[in-house]
C-alpha cells in the first residue's frame, strides 16, 4: 500500500475517523513517540523512505523499544494504517518488538485480526508479525476476551462509583480522565469479542496446483480462500501422503510466512505417488482442506526414463583430465616466470616503469591505415576512458589481414575467458609459430592484446564484440568492451562522455568514406547496449526456444533476439524448469508421428496442463518469428534431451523441417522474422551461454 499522506498531517488523522472509537489522549500518546523529523516534515512518505540509513539512526532515542512498542499498539487500536506503516519504516522489528504480548496478553496482530482490520493485519503479516502464544486453543482465546471485557467493565463501574461518591475535588479531573480511558477500552474489547464471535473458520484455499520440480521434490502453489468468514487468514497447512485418504500422513508444513503462497516439499522418494492438500487457518481454527490439481504427482525428472543413458557419458571425466594437464603446465610456467621476475635487475625494472609512465599514451594508434587493429572500450555509465588525445585506446595487430581472418577472430573471442593467461599462451604458441604460418596471425593478436594490457595497466579487457568493424579502406577493427565500477583511470588517460566524444568527431572533417574508427564512434551506443543486454540472465523457468541457423563460407550463425542475444529466440512455458518423466514420455510420442500443429488438447493424458502450456508457447513463438501456424506443419520438438543451462533455466527446442534448420549461402529462407533479431556467430553464442549460465 502506498502512503501519500504527508507527515505534518498525521495529527489530523484521528479527527477524520469519526466512525472509530476515540480515546482522548490516544493520538497524543501515539505521535509523541514518532520522531520530530517525521512529524514536522512536509515531504511524502515515499520521499522519506529513500533517506539514508544514517538519517534514521540519528532519530533513535532512549528507551526506544518501549516507546515504539507502545506506539504500535496505539496505532493498531486506532486503526491508523498510515501510522503503522511509518513505524515499520522508521524502526527495526527488534525495536518495535512486534511479537511480544502486552500486559493484556495481546500482540498488535491479535488486535488487528480481532477488529477485522484486513489492511493492517496483512501489513503486519507481511513483516513477520505473529499471534500471541497464549492462545493455544480456540477456546482459550474466547475465555481471554471475555475476561478482558469483564475487567474493563468492572473498572468502569468502580471509577463511576468513586466519581459519584466523592463528587468534585482535587482528583476529579484525573479520575474523569481515567474513566473515559477505561470506557474507550471497554468498547474496544467488546468490539474485539463481537468480531471473534461473528467469525467462522475459513473456507478452503483456491487454485491449489501441484508441480514436479525434481526427482525428490514437489511444489504446491495456492491462493487465498474466496471467503475468509470475517477473519484474516494467518497461516496455511500443507499435508502430503502416499495414500489417497491421507492416512497415514507422510508429512506436513505449517506456513506462517505469507509473503509467497508457495510451498516446497523436499526429501521425497523418486517415482512414489504423492497426494497433497492445503487448508487455511484463522482465529477460529482450521478450515476444510482442498486437494491439489492434479490430485497426485510423482517426483521425477526427464532423465529418469528407463533405458536412457547419458549422452555425454565419459565426456566430463575426459575433459577434467585434460584440464588437469593444462593446469600442471600452467603452474610450471608461472613458477618459472616468478623466478625470472625475482632475478631481474632493479635498474631495468625501474627504467621500464618510468618508460611506461611517460610514454605509454604515445603507443596508442591515432589514425587507422590499412591493417588489423584491436581497441578496448572501458565505460562507466555514459562515460568512456580515452587517451590524452581524446581517442579510444587502439593498438595495431598487423598491417594486413588474410582471407582467413574471420576464423582467427572467432578464435580470439575465446580469450574473453582467459585474459590473465595471455603471456602463457604466447610462450606456448611461439614454439609452433615457426613451423606453422597459419598461427602467425594469432600470435600477433596475442601480442597486441598483451601490449594493450601493458598500456592500460589491467589484464581484463572485457568481452569481445560479436563482429569486427570493417571499412572500405581495408581496415578491420576488433573491439572489446568492459564495464567498470567507478571512474578509475587504468592508465594516464581521462574520462569523457560518449556524446561529447561523438560531437568532437563530427566537428572534424569527415571523409566521404568513414574509417572503421568513425564507424566505431557512430555505433558505440549500439555496441554498449549489446554488451549490457548480453549480460542479462533469464529468470528461472522452462522455455521454448527456436533453433534456426544460417551458414556462410567461413562461419555458422544463430538467430537470436537483439534484446537478449545470449539465448535463442524463446517464450516462457512456465516457472517450473523441471520436465517430469511423464511429460518427457509424452513428448517422445510427438517424434515423427505427430507435428506441432496437430497436438490434440482434448487427449486424455495425465499431462493435460503441460500440453496446454506447450501449445500456448508454440503459438506465441511462431507469432514472434512471423510464421503462420498452418505453415508449421513440418515443425517438430527436439526429443533427444532437455537443455539445462543452469540457474534453474531449461529449454525445449522447436525445430523447422530438417532441410530448413540451417540455411546455406544462396538458399531462400522461407522463415523471415520481424525486425529485432540478430544472426550471431555460433562461437559468440556459445560464449554468451557460458558467461551467463555457468
UniProtKB/TrEMBL annotation:
A GO CC term assigned to this protein in UniProt: spindle
Superkingdom per UniProt: Eukaryota
InterPro entries recorded: ANKFN1, Ankyrin_rpt, Ankyrin_rpt-contain_sf, FN3_dom, FN3_sf, Ig-like_fold
The keyword Ubl conjugation is assigned to this record: no
Swiss-Prot/TrEMBL ANK repeat ranges: 104-129
One of the GO BP terms on file: establishment of mitotic spindle orientation
Keywords recorded for this protein, A-Z: ANK repeat
Leader peptide range in chain numbering: none
Residues annotated as domain Fibronectin type-III: 204-300
Ranges where the record places region Disordered: 290-310
PANTHER family assigned to the protein according to its UniProt record, in alphabetical order: ANKYRIN REPEAT AND FIBRONECTIN TYPE-III DOMAIN-CONTAINING PROTEIN 1, WIDE AWAKE
Name of the protein this chain belongs to: ANKF1 protein
Species this protein is from: Callaeas wilsoni
